Amino acid sequence: MMLVEQTTAPAAALPVADFRDHLRLGTGFADEGAEDSLLETFLRAAIAAVEAWTGKVLLERQFRLSLMGWRDTRAQTLPVAPVSEIKAVRIVDCLDWESLVDPSKYRLQQDTHRPVLMARSSRLPTIPTQGSVLIDFMAGFGPAWVDVPADLAQAVMLLAAYYYEYRHEMRVGGAVMPYGVSSLVDRWRNVRVLGGGVR
User: Fold this and answer.
1) Partner of 57 for a Cys bridge, out of 67, 124, 140, 151, CB 3.0 to 4.6 A?
2) What is the pLDDT of residues 43-79, one digit of tens each?
3) Which residues contact 129 (CB under 8 A, 6 or more apart)?
């Protein structure tokens, strides 16, 4: 399985001004805005960390999932959520020839934690030997920062501020989410309770 981000969140969608206010940086100076690219970097890093921790895509983007085989021939769980649209499903054979699957043969079952690509008939299209399937889809809470749930948005601000504060030093255990952030994102994390089947 390989998941590739096809598009990135535009800079205009990032809450740089809100982050500046959160940090209580000075305003009204001639060089105001000079740090915006640095603030954007920390915001993107914090968003990536929160998304990795929760499996939720905060700002809407397009993704491509590549699979060598279905986990279940009737349904395939998508690795991130929420998913708003399946853009295309393509079957790739061993010679790298692609064929577009008719959208009438599948549907999206939306879910906050585990969205699923479902077969409309008895099974999903057959993946040929040494072939693969490419699933293009849109995921995210929405295109604007106001679409992001408040607790996840606050977690991003806290984590980006943490990165900003310690930007000049190496932190031992830096891979661990700070407590204030983890308490905000924990309820969004996927808990796998199924012993088998589609997840």
Assistant:
1) 140
2) 999 999 999 999 999 999 999 999 999 999 999 999 9
3) 94
